[in-house]
TrEMBL record:
<comment type="similarity">
    <text>Belongs to the TRAFAC class myosin-kinesin ATPase superfamily. Myosin family.</text>
</comment>
<dbReference type="Pfam" id="PF00063">
    <property type="entry name" value="Myosin_head"/>
</dbReference>
<dbReference type="InterPro" id="IPR000048">
    <property type="entry name" value="IQ_motif_EF-hand-BS"/>
</dbReference>
<dbReference type="Pfam" id="PF00612">
    <property type="entry name" value="IQ"/>
</dbReference>
<keyword id="KW-0966">Cell projection</keyword>
<keyword id="KW-0067">ATP-binding</keyword>
<protein>
    <recommendedName>
        <fullName>non-specific serine/threonine protein kinase</fullName>
        <ecNumber>2.7.11.1</ecNumber>
    </recommendedName>
</protein>
<keyword id="KW-0418">Kinase</keyword>
<keyword id="KW-0547">Nucleotide-binding</keyword>
<keyword id="KW-0505">Motor protein</keyword>
<keyword id="KW-0677">Repeat</keyword>
<dbReference type="GO" id="GO:0032426">
    <property type="term" value="C:stereocilium tip"/>
</dbReference>
<keyword id="KW-0009">Actin-binding</keyword>
<dbReference type="GO" id="GO:0004674">
    <property type="term" value="F:protein serine/threonine kinase activity"/>
</dbReference>
<dbReference type="GO" id="GO:0001917">
    <property type="term" value="C:photoreceptor inner segment"/>
</dbReference>
<dbReference type="GO" id="GO:0032433">
    <property type="term" value="C:filopodium tip"/>
</dbReference>
<keyword id="KW-0808">Transferase</keyword>
Length: 709
């Protein structure tokens, strides 16, 4: 199939995902322009599988001599998916993060490297899952792998009752881990991925220790101590889980207990230690687990990027070109929708807006500016809805951030605030349910449960925990908590690490007279208070901006995944369900604008430069004028094109025809060149042969004369 869809006319084969990948690749090579493939659709519609196939076909098209690199690129998706995907109520392998994979090619089109960006990992899944859902895949894979390798005790994992973070209401978790072959196989596959991509054994060992450390952290229980002075104090009655977690994370268990059950407050230059209640201690424990997992995931992605960056000696990344592949979590509407679903759905809303802008708005603006009479196509513009979410200072996310700053705020005051300020047809509040609000998304109505919205948005990690984790003897763990976070909430690349650590040293140490390991100096207990606390909403906003800025650079190709039914059945086609998706994604309007409009709009100069071979002699350099464009188009015998003021307007099928003509002409040129070169070569050979014969005769006659004499 890969061979079938390699540089042929779109119409000569049935539609296929490889054809889309091929179109992006050919555009990149022909026009030397970055490309971007945007895959969208509901959760469970097949976006992740499509992304796999695109990467597979692009590695086939960009065959580098470097087989190892091709192997590595193909291993990236399975690895990040083990850490970033999970089983949800509607999809067994649901992406719980946004992924933008850039494949880098040399100017001649050979693949030379890759870079992956991750956005908005759903960290809350680590500590709690909805009924019928599971934690991230990697926890089950590693449990099964260690079980079969008889290494559970080494990583302090129980073999009877599963850890709290992966336990569920069915009570079959351990049974599945022990009996299911697939988990064990996946664990081997993940080890293989790590090895192929180039992670060292030490790094992988550290990753496993952190993951099992997270599972043990979840088992730490707290109990209240009541003494005559205070009642809101907590302790860890059973130290086993605490000791296990501390051992795996290579930190002291007393220090860990202290960080979980108390916190430092700095007032007027004095440090006061306050105790945590049982609930607060449990929140701190869960915040620590989420932070560990989120930063570990970021580190893995950064490490992959370092191992897959283009080789500076072979090729210069600046001259290369990219094909970006966007695969984000799809639109979701569950029985209960929380903060995570809201973020996911706003992101999908933004992608839909980008699609509309590109397909409808920009095209129609160009017709007007070029003075072309093309029928306008009506489409559903979701801009007002996006403004309702993203506007400052009165958009939904801004209101959420504002409310998160008030210590007294509750989820109820938040919903009241939404109701008072978001007065538009897209927002409503159902009667009789206090903590609920509804949004009319482009893909349908969704009811959100505002319970824990503020808590999830604040996403606080107490400084006390950070300080303890920095004392770890595990180099990787140290690094995770000493690198700063970027505006999108990810771990910064390692270069920033030392500067960030040394910035907080006392002046006499940073001057460098005494050589100190920067990690040993622990920072001030509340070092993060002077930084403006970042919220999940602000990370989300920056992530969207970052993603859009990457997408806008390239020429976009859209892939729409349509979900055939809601029962995960093979070969079952629900007409209503499919029609609904075709309606709200704007595909019916897209068909209309493709039939009536002109999807290729090329500047005169660019057009002449690209296609002058078709009507002019090879050595001529014709000007990029209207007349020359006309000559080329008439020579090509195309129909239904239009010339604007500065651009040639072509239908979607014209470009292919022109490229095929061009290929034919260049093919003829190559044949001519081959014959001429052959003739010149033969002539040169005859001359050389004659010269050699006369030379031989001269030498022979001279020698014979000499002998005779």
């Amino acid at each position: 199939f890969s061979k079938l869809y390699h540089g042929v006319k779109r119409s000569s084969n049935p539609p296929h995902i490889f054809a889309s990948a091929d179109a992006a690749y050919q555009s990149m090579v022909t026009f030397s322009k970055d490309q971007c493939i945007i895959i969208s659709g509901e959760s469970g519609a097949g976006k992740t599988e499509s992304a796999h196939l695109i990467v597979q076909h692009l590695t086939f098209l960009g065959k580098a001599n470097n087989r190892a690199l091709r192997e590595k690129i193909l291993q990236v998706n399975p690895l990040v998916e083990a850490f970033g995907n999970a089983c949800t109520a509607i999809n067994d392998n649901s992406s719980r993060f946004g992924k933008y994979l850039e494949m880098m090619f040399t100017p001649t089109g050979a693949v030379m490297g890759a870079k992956i960006s991750e956005y908005l990992l759903e960290k809350s899944r680590v500590i709690k899952q909805a009924v019928g859902e599971k934690n991230f895949h990697i926890f089950y894979y590693i449990y099964a792998g260690l079980y079969h390798q008889k290494k559970l005790s080494e990583y302090r994992l129980p073999d009877k009752k599963p850890p709290r973070y992966i336990d569920n209401e069915t009570g079959r978790v351990m049974h599945d881990i022990v009996t299911k072959d697939s988990y064990g196989r996946q664990f081997e596959a993940i080890q293989h991925c790590f090895r192929i991509i180039g992670f060292t054994d030490e790094e992988v060992y550290s990753v496993y220790r952190i993951l099992t450390g997270i599972l043990n952290t979840g088992n730490i229980e707290f109990a209240a101590i009541s003494s005559q002075h205070q009642t809101d104090k907590s302790e860890v009655p059973n130290p086993e889980a605490l000791d296990n977690a501390a051992a795996l994370l290579s930190i002291g268990s007393e220090e860990l207990q202290e960080a979980l059950t108390s916190h430092c407050v700095v007032t007027r230059g004095e440090t006061i230690i306050r105790t945590n209640t049982v609930d607060k201690a449990a929140d701190v424990r869960d915040a620590m687990s989420k932070a560990l997992y989120g930063r570990l995931f970021s580190w893995i992605v950064n490490r992959i990027n370092t191992l897959l960056q283009p080789d500076k000696n072979i090729c210069n990344a600046e001259n290369g070109m990219n094909v970006g592949i966007l695969d984000i979590f799809g639109f979701e509407n569950f029985a209960r929708n929380s903060f995570e679903q809201l973020c996911i759905n706003i992101a999908n809303e933004q992608i839909q807006f980008y699609f509309n802008q590109h397909i409808f708005a920009l095209e129609q603006v160009e017709y007007q500016s070029e003075g072309i009479d093309a029928t306008t196509v009506e489409y559903e513009d979701n801009r007002p809805l996006l403004d309702m979410f993203l506007q400052k200072p009165m958009g939904l996310l801004s209101l959420l951030d504002e409310e998160s700053r008030f210590p007294q705020a509750t989820d109820l005051t938040l919903v009241d605030k939404f109701e008072d300020n978001l007065r538009c047809k897209y927002f409503w509040r159902p009667k009789g349910v206090e903590l609920s609000f509804g949004i009319q998304h482009y893909a349908g109505k969704v009811l959100y449960d505002a319970c824990a919205f503020l808590e999830k948005n604040r996403d606080t990690l107490p400084a006390d925990v950070v300080v303890v984790l920095r004392t770890s003897e595990n180099k990787l763990l140290q690094q995770l908590f000493s690198s700063p976070l970027t505006k999108t909430g990810n771990l910064a690349q390692a270069r920033a690490r030392v500067t960030a650590a040394s910035r907080s040293l006392p002046p006499q140490l940073s001057a460098g007279r005494i050589k100190v390991d920067t990690m040993e100096i622990m920072r001030h207990p509340e070092e993060t208070t002077n930084m403006k606390r970042q919220t999940m909403a602000s990370y989300f906003r920056y992530s969207l901006m970052d993603l859009l800025s990457k997408m806008v650079v390239g020429q976009p190709h859209f892939i729409r995944c349509i979900k055939p039914n809601d029962d995960r059945e093979a070969l079952t086609f629900s007409h209503e369900r499919v029609l609904l998706q075709l309606r709200y994604t704007g595909i019916l309007e897209t068909v209309k604008i493709r039939q009536k409009g002109y999807s290729h709009r090329i500047l005169f100069e660019e057009f002449v430069k690209r296609y002058y071979y078709l009507a002019f002699k090879a050595h001529e350099t014709p000007l990029g004028s209207r007349e020359n464009c006309l000559a080329i188009l008439e020579k090509s015998k195309l129909e239904n094109w239009i010339l604007g003021k500065t651009k040639v307007f072509l239908k979607y099928y014209h470009i292919e025809q022109l490229n095929l003509f061009l290929r034919e002409v260049i093919g003829r040129v190559v044949v001519m060149q081959a014959y001429i070169k052959g003739w010149l070569g033969a002539r040169r050979y005859r001359k050389v042969k004659e010269k050699r014969e006369t030379s031989a005769v001269t030498i022979q006659s001279a020698w014979r004369g000499y002998e005779a004499r």
